[in-house]
Amino acid sequence: MKLLFDFFPILFFFIAYKFFDIYVATGVAIASTFLQVAISWIRTRKVATMQLVTLAIIIVFGGLTLYLHDEQFIKWKPTVINWLFGGAFLISHIFGQQTAIERMLGANLSLPKQVWRRLNLGWVIFFLSLGGANLYVMSHFSRDAWVNFKLFGMLGLTVLFIVLQSFYLSRYMVEPAAKDSDTFL
User: Fold this and answer.
1) Quick one: which of 13, 69, 158, 159 has the most CB atoms within 10 Å?
2) CB 15 within 8 A of CB 36
3) What is the band of 174 on the pLDDT scale with cuts at 50, 70, 90?
4) What range does the domain containing 51 cover?
């Protein structure tokens, strides 16, 4: 459910693009990202750093797109966001006591340090690759293809990466001990 919540501004962008144009879609993306942050604040009284960074970037790149009437800025936004996140995860990998992924998931998972580091490095590679894929698609394909990739390609790649990561993590999950049948009676 969280993944869908994280992607709803992209979905709204996609729908607005299909019915109107890239500029209306950009305005919708800005407004829906504001809404996303507001909903997070109302529900939890806090907003994740990633959401604030995304909001700032959509305001800057979306604003430039609308002000200059140049779609290249909004096309660069996914690359900038993914590379910033990849860079942040890489910095946490090199410096500090915990990696970024461990800070995010450490309350829910207990993993050996080397597993946290591999997992974090996997996210670094994923974010940097996704940013590169966006650059490739925006440079070599039509605007329509880029919009489709932004929703379906990026969402699909993210889901695939999370599924693969889950398989990797499954070997470190501990099953709860089975209760004796005598204690049930």
Assistant:
1) 13
2) no
3) low
4) 2-173
The reply to whether 179 falls in a domain is no
- Continuous segment of H or E residues that includes residue 74: helix 72-94
Q: How many domains does the chain have?
A: 1
The answer to the question of residue 35 being in a domain is yes
* Residue-wise pLDDT tens digits, 51-108: 999 999 999 999 999 999 999 999 999 999 999 999 999 999 999 889 999 998 888 8
Here the tokens at position 107 are 């309350």
Other C-beta atoms closer than 10 Å to the C-beta of 124 total: 21
6 located within any domain:
yes
Question: How many angstroms separate the CA atoms of 21 and 26, rounded?
Answer: 9
Cα–Cα distance, 85 to 91 (Å, whole number): 10
In this prediction the pTM is 0.86
Residue 167, burial from CB neighbour count under 10 angstroms (0-12, 13-18, 19+): exposed
